[in-house]
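Entry 14. Ran structure prediction on the chain below.
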Amino acid sequence: MEAAPNAKAPELPARVNDVEISAATIEAESQHYANEPDPALAARRALVVHELLRQRAVALELIASDADLDDATLDTLLAREMRVPEPTRENCARYYEQHASRFVRNELVYASHILFAITDRVPLALLRQKAEDTLNELVRAPETFEAQARALSNCPSSGVGGSLGQLTRGDTVPEFESALFDSADVGLLPRLVRTRFGFHLVRIDQRVAGDPVAFDDAQETIARFLSERVRHKAIQQYVSILASEASLENAALEAASSPLVQ
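Output, structure tokens:
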């Protein structure tokens, strides 16, 4: 069993028990993870997880030993091995009360940003430092935001001084949406916003308050969200158990120390 993730050897093949995942396969798979900070590492983990699940399906005689794991078989495997409780009305009501700001119709934010995009050419630490230095400059001279956006931003919005125009929930990736909507801040945000694309300096130009959504109207959406979140955590725990019971090499996974999913 592998004691710790091996993220520094992406050129090496991975091994799950007696099955090797070649470096060429990992490299080809990494093309599907171009938006990840480390595409090769993300591909390695995905392929290892897939092989762990495939081998478990073989052990349960759901597929032949030389067969691949398709979506239907994966669904059958997870339904057989995991028990995921459905959220109750009380669970949904608690989430609604704790996240009331998310249940608003017609809420608008007008925002601008400067993107320091993650690339293979610039080390992440240097990119973050450049973004932080620029943020400090803008704190001292906020009137230079548009000029800095035109000079530095890796987003097409740089041509209009970083303006993203009118945004609603669902228009952006979750991390960026949270920065826009989960506070009442206006003006330059005093912190970097990290997304899969890089580091953003964000300025809230205007907020338009929306209308609250009643709990009864929101309950079904909340239930689906909570159910998916619980299922996602259960799958992570299940994979960790499989990893703890397997012989792994260069897998970039940490094995679980205790069985959390029965």
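Residues 1-10, 255-262 have pLDDT under 50 and may be disordered. Will compare against last week's run tomorrow.
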